[in-house]
Amino acid sequence: MDLHLSGKRALITGGSKGIGRATAEVLAAEGMDVLLIARDPAALATAAAGIRARWQVQVDVLAADLSDEAEVQRVVAAAGVVDVLVNNAGAIPPGTVLQVDNETWRRAWDLKVFGFISLCRSLYPAMAARKSSSTCSVLQISPLRTPRERDWPRPMMFSAPSAFCSPTTTQIFEVPISRPAMMLESSNIFSPGF
Predict the structure, then answer these.
(1) Distance separating alpha carbons of residues 22 and 45, to the nearest angstrom
(2) Would you put residue 146 in left (φ > 0), alpha (ψ -120 to 50) or beta?
(3) Top-level CATH class of 9-190?
(4) Which of 6, 68, 127, 153 could form a disulfide with 31 if both were Cys (CB 3.0 to 4.6 A apart)?
(5) What is the pLDDT of residues 82-123, one digit of tens each?
(6) Rounded Cα–Cα distance for residues 54 and 51 (Å)
(7) What is the DSSP pairing of strand 134-138 with strand 186-190?
(8) What are the residue ranges spanned by the domains of the chain?
(9) Maximum distance among all alpha carbons in the chain?
(10) 140 closest CA partner among 105, 90, 180
(11) Phi and psi at residue 5, to the nearest 5°
């Protein structure tokens, strides 16, 4: 399938493995150059080598911790042209509300929520100016389980950051009719398991 993405560039957070790497591979197969962002330089190098071996696209990597605002701004400065932003970094720690301590909870939100929002806000003006950019946010609303298996605090912990990021993404990338020149081509939210 030709999605007309050849020659464009995607920035993918959490791009060294899992959903992020799989997304990078799909976009590379469509001819997109990719910039992979993750914390682990070795995992980034492995992912980049795998993508380069299969597709003739440019693959750049940058090790960065998006829970740190200075690191977010370093990524923005290094990013160059971004046609597609895939927000995928971060995970909610395992355990129930009573099992996860405050520091762990805050670290998770610094990455999954505040890093996510800061990166969106920082990249938005340049993306909107090109009028052909898109975003995709990977947000897990709640794991699918039967009611008997469902442990209510666990889905709540997954859902809370996503419930915050979903409307925030919409607000950042949704522009009033009076400023149509600032509108992105599309902004999408993807929830694994649904």
Answers:
(1) 15
(2) beta
(3) alpha beta
(4) 6
(5) 988 888 888 777 777 788 889 988 888 888 888 888 998 898
(6) 5
(7) parallel
(8) 9-190
(9) 50
(10) 90
(11) -110, -5
Contact 35, 82 (CB under 8 A): yes
Please provide the DSSP assignment of 78-102 as one string.
HH---SEEEE----PPSS-TTTS-H
- What's the token pair of residue 184? 């992105």
pTM of the predicted structure, to 2 decimals: 0.76
Q: How confident is the model over 126-171, as pLDDT tens digits?
A: 888 877 666 665 544 444 444 444 454 444 445 555 555 555 555 5
Contact 111, 87 (CB under 8 A): no
CB atoms within 10 A of CB 127: 23
What's the CA gap between 153 and 134, in Å, rounded? 33
What CA–CA distance (Å, rounded) separates 72 from 95?
Answer: 28
